[in-house]
Each structure stands twice: as C-alpha cells, then as structure tokens.
Amino acid sequence: MQELIALAGIVAALSVGVVSPGPSFVMVARMSVAGSRSQGVAAALGMGLGGMAFATMALLGLQAVLMAVPTLYFALKLGGGLYLCYLGFLIFRGARESLTLQSGGADEPRQFGRSLWRGLATQLSNPKTAIVYGSVFAAFLPHSFSAGFGIALVAAVFAVEASWYAFVALLLSSQGPRKVYLGCKTWVDRSAGVVLFGLGVRLIATAPDA
Q1: Fewest 10 Å CB contacts: which of 22, 57, 126, 187?
Q2: Is 166 left (phi over 0), alpha (psi -120 to 50) or beta?
C-alpha cells in the first residue's frame, strides 16, 4: 500500500512538471508542425526514454550525487546550455528557408531515428529536470522498496512523458496548425530559436552557481 501511494504521488507531481512549457515542448511542437507526424511521435518517445533515464538515476540517488559533486552539476548545466544554444541557432538560421512538409517515404525510418535521438538529447540536456526528478523521488520514495516497484515507477515515468508529448505531436501535426505554421514560418522559427537559445544562455549563466 505504501508503494502504491508513493507511485501515485510521484506520477502526479511529475505530470504537473511535464505539461509545463520548456525546451522539450518547443522542440516537439516545432518538429511536429515542420516535419511529419511520425517525427513528432518519435521525438515524444525520445522524451519518454529521457524520463526513464532520469527516473533510473533518481532511484540511484542522482540528487545526492549532484549536490555532493558540484563540478558534475556545473558540467551538466554548461553542456546542456551549449546544446540548447546550438539547437536554437540552427532553427533561427533556417527560419527563412522554404519548407516542404514531409509525408513519409523511403527516408522516413532514418528521420524517425533522428527525431527520436534529438528528443532524447533535448530531454537529457536540461539538468534542471534531473534536479526535479531527484527532488520528487526524495520526497515520495519509501525508505525501502521492491524491485517491482522500481520497474513500475520507471515504466510509469515513460508513459507520462511519452504520452503527453505524443499528444502534443498528434495535435500540432494536424492540418490546421500546419497551415498556421506555414503562413508565419519565419517568425515562428525565429521565436522558437530565440527561446531555445535564451534557455541555453540562462543555463550557461547560472552554471557557476552550481
């Protein structure tokens, strides 16, 4: 019973955080309207895998490690910030390029794999997510738990992360949002690029405080 209460508490707390806008949302949203539906879903699966990685590390005491080794947290913030700046720069630079929406084809498996890895990298690039997972797990985890509980918890985290971003991908890859995107692609891409770049700069600027 204690494990079920802990599981419910962790899932509820993480669900609130998942739906909050951030770099992951920006990436999945843009990929869904600018690419194909399958690419958006692939990115959502990448987000889910990233959540599983954070959940596994949190079970192993991630927050304690980061707090005990400030250099590691500094490196994570610096690396994550540089990656977000890089993504933001690429999106901003290509804002004026014409776009042909993709509808599958022989290249689709490769695009699916690329989108999945980009989603995973974007999720893992945010060290604040690691701290959130560590804090939530520290607050709700029982002092001792079974292996079955750990497996169920990691699976539930994947379901929460992947299902939300898959919903975003399915919604924004529909015809209406795509028409809106094509009509103002330059400004949408510039805005997305600036947001990602700004988030990256913020991570880099606060890295010395780690």
Answers
A1: 187
A2: alpha
Read off φ and ψ for residue 115, nearest 5 degrees: -65, -40
Helices vs. strands in the chain: H and E counts, helices first: 10, 0
Cα–Cα dist 123/137, whole Å: 18
- And the tokens for 164? 């939300």
pTM score: 0.74
Question: 150-198, pLDDT tens digit by residue?
Answer: 899 999 999 999 999 999 889 888 888 777 777 777 887 788 788 878 8
* Cα–Cα distance, 143 to 91 (Å, whole number): 45
User: Is residue 47 packed enough to be buried (19+ CB in 10 Å), middle (13-18) or exposed (0-12)?
Assistant: buried
Kind and range of the H or E run holding 199: helix 185-206
Please give the C-alpha separations between residue 141 and each of 19, 56, 131, in angstroms, as whole numbers: 22, 13, 15
Q: How would you class 179 by CB atoms within 10 Å of its CB: exposed for 0-12, middle for 13-18, buried for 19 or more?
A: exposed
Token pair listed for 34 = 């600018």
- Distance of alpha carbon 205 from its chain centroid, rounded? 21
| Cα 109 → chain centroid | 21
Q: Are 6 and 142 in contact (CB under 8 A)?
A: yes
Domain boundaries along the sequence of the chain: 2-209
Q: How many CB atoms lie within 10 A of CB 121?
A: 15
